[in-house]
């Protein structure tokens, strides 16, 4: 396992492919946390 292995993250980086271990950018977006003020109740 290493740079030439298609099943590892490092191998996918070297080969330039994507998959479950190395998803493409923008697939998951993190939502900003809502700011709770004194009127939160």
Q: What are its keywords?
A:
41 residues; mainly alpha; 0% strand; ribonucleoprotein; ribosomal protein
Quick recap:
This protein is mostly helical and 41 residues long. The chain is built from 1 helix and no strands.
What does this structure look like?
- With 41 residues, the chain is mainly α.
- The chain has one domain.
- The chain is 17% helix and 0% strand.
- The chain has one helix and no strands.
- It is rod-shaped.
- The N and C termini lie far apart (54 Å).
- InterPro entries: Ribosomal_bTHX, Ribosomal_bTHX/bTHXc/bTHXm.
- It comes from Ulvibacter antarcticus.
- Keywords: Ribonucleoprotein, Ribosomal protein.
- Belongs to the bacterial ribosomal protein bTHX family.
Outline the secondary-structure elements:
Layout: H1 9-15
Family: Belongs to the bacterial ribosomal protein bTHX family.
Keywords: Ribonucleoprotein, Ribosomal protein
GO cellular component, one term: ribosome
